[in-house]
Every structure is written in C-alpha cells, then in structure tokens.
Amino acid sequence: MAKMQPKMLKAMVLGANDGIITTFAVVAGVVGAGLPTPTIIILGIANMTADAISMSLGDFLGEQSVNQLEKKKISAFHHFFRSTSWKTFIAFFFASSLPLIPYLIHFVGVAIEDEMRFPLSMISTACGLFIVGSMRTIITKHGWLRSGLEMLGIGAAAAGVSYLLGKFIEQLIS
Asked: What does the pLDDT profile of the chain (174 residues) look like in tens digits?
C-alpha cells in the first residue's frame, strides 16, 4: 500500500471536513428557516459544487504560488495533477453529499417522510464527521475517539449556529 503523504492527508481531511460541515450548515439553515425540500436540494447541490471547485482551485493556486516562489518551472496542468488539489475536490464533493442523502434518496425510489429527512441528515453528517476525524489517526497516531469527537464537535457547532440563524432570519422576515 502506498504511503500517504502529510500534504495529501491534509488536503483530503480539509476537503471532507469542510464539505460535510458547510453542506450540513446549509441544510440546517434552510430547515431552520422552514423552507421546503426542493430549496434544500437546490442550495445543497449548489454549495457542494461551488465549494468543491473553490476549495480545490484555492488549494491549487496556493500550491502554485509556493512553487512559483520556489522558482519551479512546471506547467500549470502538470502541477494540478501532481498537487493535492484534485484530492481536495474529490474529498469535498463526496463528503458534502452525506447531508443531502436523505433529501436525494427519493429519486432512487426510497420513500422517507419529510419529518425524518433532517434527523437522518444529522445522523449521516455526524457519522461522516466522526469517521473522517477518526481516519486522521492513520497518520497522526493520536487517539481515534478524540480525533473523531473533535471533528464532530466543530461540525455540530457550525450546524447549530446555522440552524439558529435560519430560524432567526425566518422569524425576522415573516
């Protein structure tokens, strides 16, 4: 098995962590505002796509800047595929789909009642955050439980703020 480089691990953990948290924060804010399921799906997918592109290209530009500073002369295309940028995109995009699964699953014929979607989104998000946090220990050798709970705590705080903000704004404009 190939040894994972610290740079690659950082990109993948950052992408997955940010993907899960930001997409669930969008879902939580929309649910808090009492908006319908189609709004959750539209905003969730828009967030997944735009944020995955933004994160991966931001990672790419950051690495390109470092390489230019170090006066390395390689093509941008070659550098992109040598860099961790595409790994950030993949980790972000797939991890960010976890909060949306309960909202999208009816497209494949699985019926979930509306009031169950948000709790299931919370569960899939919490599991994803904990797993990604725990997987960091493959490289870091820190305790898997603590690492998983750290990432879960950060995500829960972000989602809680988004949910409450959605509720507040909905009441403010109603």
From this structure: 456 677 777 788 888 888 999 999 999 999 999 999 999 999 999 999 988 888 888 888 777 777 766 665 556 666 666 667 788 888 888 999 999 999 999 888 888 898 999 999 999 999 999 998 898 887 777 889 998 999 899 989 988 998 999 889 888 888
Count Cβ atoms below 10 Å from residue 137 Cβ, excluding itself. Answer: 15
Q: Does the residue 1 lie in any domain?
A: no
DSSP 50-118: HHHHHHHHHHHHHHHHHHHHTT----HHHHHHHSSHHHHHHHHHHHHTGGGHHHHGGGGT----HHHHH
Structural domain contains residue 111: yes
Q: Is 110 part of any domain? A: yes
Answer yes or no: is 44 within a domain.
yes
CA distances (Å), origin 27, targets 1, 36, 80, 84, 154: 37, 11, 31, 28, 16
Quote the radius of gyration of the chain (alpha carbons, Å): 18
Counting the structural domains of the chain, the total is 1
Enclosing domain of residue 32: 6-173
